[in-house]
């Protein structure tokens, strides 16, 4: 069994991260510390926020590795290699997964005040993970263009049906906020938005 702790580049310079690195190294904990580096924490570029923007090197006594998070096959191979390493008793790993977000960080962030539209379009054109995977599958003759088109149509239909269901469904009651958080913890008290509010969890 192994564990994963995930942060993004915007939070990867905080002190508790380095405390966790130290403890994991001391106990040789089978933990993969994954930093999703999309190069913009909110609206600040990683090179402006970090004196050392090479996040995979920040583990000190914890070995680090960087990978292309936009390449589905690279992610698969990388994950297998790292989990094999940890299961062999070698301790934790710091993994920097280089990726990109096409949209703003939140509804209040248009995503264009700190980067150009041309930059976003260039990444989408040359590095998009779905487009890359389609190319890999066609080149490897794992699927035909027609089969991929049918799959895309099916996926869009599933998404459209899900959106329609959500929009047409009545608003949930407040107690539902405390449900389906965990898989197998029935009847556990879950803290709400303040220290005085609790709910009883139901996994269903």
Provide keyphrases for this structure.
two-stranded antiparallel sheet; four-stranded parallel beta sheet; alpha/beta; 204 residues
What does this structure look like?
- By secondary structure, this protein is of the alpha/beta class.
- Helix content is 39%, strand content 17%.
- The strands form three sheets. Strands 1-2-6-5 form a four-stranded parallel sheet, with helices on one face. Strands 3-4 form a two-stranded antiparallel ribbon.
- Strand 7 and strand 8 form a beta hairpin.
- The longest helix has 24 residues, at 145-168.
- The model has no long low-confidence stretch (mean pLDDT 85).
Quick recap:
The chain has helices at residues 15-27, 46-49, 72-87, 117-127, 129-139, 145-168; strands at residues 3-8, 31-37, 40-41, 44-45, 64-68, 93-98, 189-191, 198-200. The protein has 204 residues and is of the alpha/beta class.
Average pLDDT rating: 85
Number of strands: 8
Poorly predicted parts: none
Number of helices: 6
- End-to-end gap: 26 Å
- Give the fraction of residues assigned to helices: 25-40%
Shape: globular
Class by alpha and beta content:
alpha/beta
Over the alpha carbons, how many angstroms does the gyration radius reach?
21 Å
Strand content: 15-25%
Largest sheet: 4 strands, parallel
- What is the succession of H and E elements? EHEEEHEHEHHHEE
């Amino acid at each position: 069994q192994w564990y994963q702790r995930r942060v993004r580049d915007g939070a990867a310079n905080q002190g508790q991260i380095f405390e966790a690195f130290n403890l994991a190294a001391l106990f040789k904990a089978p933990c993969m510390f994954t930093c999703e580096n999309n190069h913009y924490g909110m609206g600040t570029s990683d090179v402006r926020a970090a004196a050392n923007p090479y996040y995979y090197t920040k583990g000190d006594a914890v070995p680090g590795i960087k990978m292309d998070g936009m390449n589905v096959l690279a992610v698969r191979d990388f994950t297998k290699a790292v989990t094999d390493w940890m299961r062999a008793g070698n301790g934790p790993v710091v993994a920097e997964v280089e990726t990109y977000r096409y949209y703003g960080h939140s509804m209040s962030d248009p995503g264009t005040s700190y980067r150009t539209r041309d930059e976003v379009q260039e990444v989408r054109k040359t590095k998009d993970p779905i487009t890359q995977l389609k190319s890999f599958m066609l080149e490897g003759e794992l699927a035909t263009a027609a089969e991929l088109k049918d799959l895309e149509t099916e996926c869009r239909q599933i998404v459209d049906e899900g959106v329609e269901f959500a929009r047409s469904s009545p608003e949930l009651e407040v107690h539902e906020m405390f449900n389906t958080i965990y898989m197998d913890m029935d009847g556990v008290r879950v803290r709400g938005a303040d220290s005085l509010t609790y709910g009883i969890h139901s996994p269903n």
